[in-house]
Amino acid sequence: MSVTQDPPVPSTPSSSPGVDHPPPRAAGGGRLLVRRLHFYAGILVAPFLLIAAVSGALYAVAPTLENIVYSSYLHTDSRGTVKPLAEQVSAAAQSRPDLTVSAVRPSVNDGDTTRVLFDDPGLGESERLAVFVDPVTARPVGELVSYGSSGALPLRTWISSLHRNLHLGEPGRLYSELAASWLWVIALGGLILWVSRYRRGNGRTRLLTIDRSSRGRNRTLNWHGAMGIWIVVGLVFLSATGLTWSRYAGENVSEVRSALQWTTPTLDTTLPGAAVAAPGSVGHEGHDGHTSSPTVVDPAGTDASITRLDDVLAAARAAGIDGKVEVAIPESSDAAFTVTQTREAWQFSPNSVAVDGATDANVDESWFADWPLAAKLTTWGIALHMGVLFGLVSQIALFVLAVVLVAIIIRGYQMWWQRRPRRGGAPVGSPPRRGGLRQLPIPAIVGVLVVAVAVGWFIPLLGLSLAAFVLVDVLIGAGKALQRRQT
Questions:
Q1: Which end of the chain is more exposed for a tag (fewer CB within 10 A), N or C?
Q2: Which strands sit side by side in the sheet containing 100-105, from one edge to the other?
Q3: How would DSSP label each residue in 331-345?
Q4: Which residue in 56, 145, 50 sits closest to 387, CA to CA?
Q5: Quick check: 180 and 381 in contact, CB under 8 A?
């Protein structure tokens, strides 16, 4: 929520027009402080939130759009006996003899294609070339660039980049991190103000519904507050999960998870008796990075690692790895294959195993049930944020959430406009009265400052922008004080 305000506090008899007096104690210092913070954050951060909401709405439905746009790559009309996986991969390798196979995502359902993934030095970070193969005829049907562990195709990748960094690269990530950093503050601030207004209304105000009898700014406020309270939990969730991907706050989150041993377990692909794996060989666990250099496959498809794919997959299935998976090919003969369940709708447990390609024995296992709770929550949160966890249901929910957020932001700016002076003065509404912090008891003031510093350190962009808000506010107050002395 953004820029929710209560009606202006009436001036006391001793007040003079245009003078920025400290608010009366009866108004409540804490509420006044939240109002002023909510106002400034809403006005100045809302443009970033608006961009994130619009691009996020597109991102939410991107998996469905991808399935429609690339239907000819992802699906086939062929029906019949499926060719061995090794034969399908060999066919893809023959179509791209200049590249090396890194992994394969076998077809599971009738009518789906097999996706053979190649490391291509000409592509960007976390990008691989995907050759789609008809599993019945073992013929390639096309190729596209695939991004990350989610296997996003060009359309979804473009939308994802728009949402993450506006296609500006690393500098562009500052916009999304700033939006995520402030979203939870604005949402919770709006919740506090709306509930406070309801409690002070003595039954004359509504909490969850719109008062359609209201008019003007009060009607706008009703829409703004009621819509906000319905989605506040979703906004806090989006903020929290978005920060895990951010540049600066995300690093702090990773450090905390590592210190508390809440990280996602990884597979050990080193075969018994083999030398210690080189850096980068314990990869392909389903993360976005793919830095290893897998064994080269010749056009005839006679490489041993390819011929063993069917047996490796069968061993993983016997171990309990079901559904859609990615089989990662080892870098060398002294490393194991990894078979990992891919991120799909209604997939709650991305289990994985490492399989010895020579003996089909399990070298290592990673079962989701054994993961730390924080690692589980992170996995579910990311999948839900991406609109994948519950399939179309989560996509629709995220789309609606983004649309409502856009409406709330627009209503917030509308209130700012409606609050402007009717005769002369500023073209927009003035901010809420200052002085809320001074109205708090000393222990509360110390507590607020300590929390602000701690949160600002952990979420750096929030801390820096908050410091900028405070500095500007102090300068404005000093300017008004100087003007009063001169008059």
A1: C
A2: 139-147, 127-134, 114-119, 100-105, 325-328, 337-341, 352-355, 362-366
A3: SSTTB-EEEEE---T
A4: 56
A5: no
Euclidean distance between CA atoms 448 and 94, whole angstroms: 65
One-letter amino acid for residue 187 of the chain:
A
SS3 364: strand
- Binning the chain into helix, strand and coil, the percentages to the nearest 5 are 50, 10, 40
Q: Which two tokens stand for residue 119?
A: 């490391």
* Size of the chain in residues: 487
Question: Tokens representing 126?
Answer: 């976390």
Two tokens at 363?
């070298």
Token readout for 345 is 């709708």
Please state, in angstroms and rounded to a whole number, the distance separating the CA atoms of residues 329 and 284: 9
Please give, one letter per residue, the 3-state secondary structure of 100-122. Answer: EEEEEECCCCCCECEEEEEECCC
Q: Tens digits of per-residue pLDDT, 392-436?
A: 999 999 999 999 999 999 999 998 888 777 666 666 667 777 777
Q: Report the C-alpha gap between 393 and 71 in whole angstroms.
A: 20
Q: What six digits make up the tokens of 469? A: 């808000």
β-strand 352-355 against 127-134: which pairing, if any? unpaired
120 vs 145: CA distance, rounded Å: 10
pTM above 0.85, yes or no: no
